[in-house]
Structures are given as structure tokens and as C-alpha cells.
Amino acid sequence: xxxxxxxxxxxxxxxxxxxxxPPAFLADWLMGFAGCHLEIGVILQCEMLxxxxxxxxxxxxxxxxxxxxxxxxxxxxxxxxxxxxxxDLLIKLLSATLARGNSTELGGxxxxxxxxxxxxxxxVQDSESWSIGALEELSKLHSAVCKKA
Length: 149
What we know:
By secondary structure, this protein is mostly helical. The chain has one domain (11-148). The protein contains seven helices and no strands.
């Protein structure tokens, strides 16, 4: 079934349904999804490395920041939304990392991410207007990291 773009997602119900699914089902489904979307695979690997490190894995996080903020090709207005989605994934990753703690190492990485996103914004024809919100979110995140440190 093709879902029309204007369909509303029942996020709360979806979250409740996912919460009761068996872990093996979710892992298989997520791996299949990551196989179709390299960005998801990169983020999952970064999360895995951070979990193994027991905190912030600066090398993995920096590599993920670089991957998500490197433009894969000359970007026109047609690809603007795709780049915005990559930046949104980055913000979610950094927010989740902060929520787990260890803000000392994270401060420099969030600042690095903010600088790279500023560069991306200058290179993208942002017809979707995602860049203003992304820069605001990263600035708030940087402020939160500094306060927590």
C-alpha cells in the first residue's frame, strides 16, 4: 500500500506498538532499513561504538559528524530536503549522546558539528528552510552541553 504524503502518522500509537515487539524482530527490521539508508547504518554503528566505550566515543562521533555533513555531490534545491534529513539525524544523535551524559568530551564535538553544518548551509540551496531550525537546535544543544559541563 502506498501511503499518501499528507497522511498523518499516529506517533504515540506507533511507539506503543514498537515497544511490545520482540527485540529480534526490531533488530532485523532495523538492519534491513539501515541497509537501504546508509545514514542510518552509520548512526547505528556510532551508537554501538559509544555503548562499547561506555560513554562518548569521540573518534566514532567525529567520523559520523563528518559523514553526515559532507555533501555527497553538488546540491541543488531538489536535494535540499535530503541534506536537511541528514542534519536532523545528526542533531538527534548528538542529543541522545548528551542525554546519556559525559558532556565534557561532547562540547567540542557539538561545536565542531555546528561549524560543519554552518558550512553545509552555505553550500545548499535551502528551499525547504530546514537550515534555520537546524542551526537553532545545534546552538541550543551546544548551550545545553556547556551548562551540563
